[in-house]
Amino acid sequence: MASKLYTHATIITVNDRREIYLDGSILVVGNIIKDIGLSKDLIPRYPGVLTHDLQNHIVVPGLISTHMHAVQSIFRGTADDVDLVSWMCDRIWVMQGTILPEEAYQGARLSIAEMLLGGTTTFLESLWAERYGFENLVKAVEESGIRGCLGKVVMDVNPDQPAFRTRMHPGLVEGPETLDAAIEMWEKFDGVADGRVKVWFGARTPGGVTTKLLTRMCEEAKARDIHITMHCLEEQGDHDVFKQFNMSPMEYCDSIGLLSSRTVLIHMCWVEDADISRLKDTGTHIAHCPASNLKLGSGFCPVPKLLKAGVNVGIGCDGAPCNNMLDLFQEMRLASWIHKGYNLDPKVVSAEEALEMATINGAKALGLDGAGGIGSLEIGKKADFVAIKLKRAHQVPNYDPVATVVYATNAGDVDLVVVDGKVLVQDGKLLSMDEEAVMKDGILAGKAVIERAGLAKEIVPKWPVVISAST
């Protein structure tokens, strides 16, 4: 097996002791970290091994996005400055309901290229619809080298669903057969691409789906050890949906078997104090999406309360139309800063906690934090890591590497990305994909969908566009 020694980096391990090596090295053999420590110890220990000098770099574990809509990157900038219901019903659902499989594939490729270039090495897709072609998402993950936990949509039509959900585009409406289809995809694709692909259930939101189907899904998940991801309590109206069950939101979710260590609930802006202990007791994970929640005016997930209660909180970018960048450095920064301001407390959600959310907490949420897993840089774990080169004025001085990463770094600062032992980004250039071709194909796919959806005349700049000189 090929070996490589990455040397002379500042390494933020996020191990149990949260050690930082100011002049550290990592030995990678195949796809595994075989040794890690100070350069003065490792370099003489492994003479003759190929080296990669990372002097003046900060190395962190590969970043993990616990919420993503991979198809949506070709819709970036198509639904800005509108409320969530209008965003979904009038734009995003319409486009997603008319997309073709090849266009969905191009959307996934564009998303993955952006994530890799920005240091995201693992992502959780939440709702890949039948019409997109699940094999296209698997193909995009396999070709690119990224890790993907891929949520295949599970839904039916609840006759008592909230009124706005009846406005879902007919091209996205699917029935209870989606559960069997998701199981089939799990049987076919879980573990492919050298284990980089994991297949999940991607459940539609309670109220829009029948309790009968959600209960059966949870039973199947428990029996087969399949993980579940689901949007929940994203906006205030979502909280009102649970009144029909005469239970609190988490009481209902617990009653159908949804709450468990195999479940990631997304957004959770409107979870109440009484339900937080239920999340902790069941080991349920949360995906916090600060940029999306801010842009859509959805609310504020009570992250400080969740962390204090011992609930595991990861972090996600959501989709490009509600962000508009898949930049986990931005998400870490926002996750720290917005809660300081909202709570009038500069001590909540520290830089260290934000980095944990994007690394080891994300790995825990995906069930990938154990031996041979990801989320921290330790002997025996997968060689997934990111190197940030300190080469720009906004990055220096660097007195505290964690603060530099969380508060003074963006996706464009990423220099090297290694996933499963393979170098996918080097010198800021994507090696596993043709970035120029990916962008070109994504632009063409987006335009084709918008035209077919009948939105070409609506998705235009709000200010007047001058296309020729006035006469």
Structural account:
With 471 residues, the protein is α/β, with parallel strands linked by helices. 35% of the residues lie in helices and 21% in strands. Strands 1, 2, 3, 4, 5, 14, 15, 16 and 17 form a nine-stranded mixed beta sheet that branches. An eight-stranded parallel beta sheet has the order 6-7-8-9-10-11-12-13, sandwiched between helices. Strand 1 (3-12) and strand 2 (20-29) form a beta hairpin. Helix 8 (249-255) packs parallel to helix 9 (273-282) and helix 12 (328-342) crosses helix 13 (351-358). It is globular. Pfam families: Amidohydro_1 (PF01979).
Strand residue percentage: 15-25%
Low-confidence stretches: none
Protein structure class: alpha/beta
How many helical stretches? Answer: 16
Cα gyration radius (Å): 22 Å
CATH homologous superfamily descriptor of the domain at 63-365: Metal-dependent hydrolases
Report the CATH architecture of the domain at 63-365. Answer: Alpha-Beta Barrel
Examine the coordinates and then state which fold CATH places here, giving the name of the CATH topology of the domain at 63-365. Answer: TIM Barrel
Biggest beta-sheet profile? 9 strands, mixed
Relative helix content: 25-40%
User: What's the number of extended β-strand segments?
Assistant: 17
